[in-house]
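R.M. (postdoc): so does anyone remember the format we settled on? I'll just put the structure tokens first.
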């Protein structure tokens, strides 16, 4: 039995997304991400290749091109409205508000600013337009069960880093 990451091994990782310019941590996880290496495409191929052969305790840093993930920042998705037009329950920085366009397609907007006169929401992904580093630490490696190999991850789990990074 090998203690390195290779295909059909169950791997648990912690990760964070760091703003390359400021060093600020933009995203962290509260619980490890578990997946079956080489079976589940929860991580990009770029990341998976860098994890091959790594051991528990190893840390990798991968630059992420947010333009590839989200496209260019779209300033037309930033709206400011009079505060009295916004229900009180939405007057909180970081609050997500789901709105529909004229075709009925939903889009999430995040409250980015408000004061006693106005409230601003942004429909761009929070990582859009930033240079970020994706830092992963290997927490655990073990043989995957047949059931885990079949589903690509832990039984009764739904690991999805795309959700964290905002990909649909």
């Amino acid at each position: 039995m090998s203690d390195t990451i290779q295909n059909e091994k169950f791997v648990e990782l912690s990760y964070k997304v760091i703003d390359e310019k400021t060093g600020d941590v933009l995203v962290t996880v509260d619980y490890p991400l578990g997946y079956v290496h080489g079976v589940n495409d929860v991580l990009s191929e770029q990341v998976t290749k860098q994890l091959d052969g790594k051991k528990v305790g190893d840390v990798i840093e991968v630059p992420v091109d947010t333009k590839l993930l989200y496209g260019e920042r779209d300033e037309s998705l930033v709206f400011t409205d009079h505060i009295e037009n916004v229900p009180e329950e939405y007057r909180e920085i970081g609050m997500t508000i789901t709105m529909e366009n004229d075709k009925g397609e939903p889009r999430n907007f995040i409250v980015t600013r408000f004061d006693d006169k106005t409230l601003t929401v942004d429909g761009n992904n929070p990582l859009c337009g930033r240079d970020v580093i994706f830092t992963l630490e290997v927490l655990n490696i073990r043989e995957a069960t047949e059931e885990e190999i079949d589903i690509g991850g832990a039984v009764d789990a739904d690991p999805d880093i795309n959700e964290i990074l905002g990909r649909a």
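R.M.: ...and that's the designed sequence above, right after the tokens. Also worth knowing: The radius of gyration is 19 Å. The first helix runs from residue 45 to 51.
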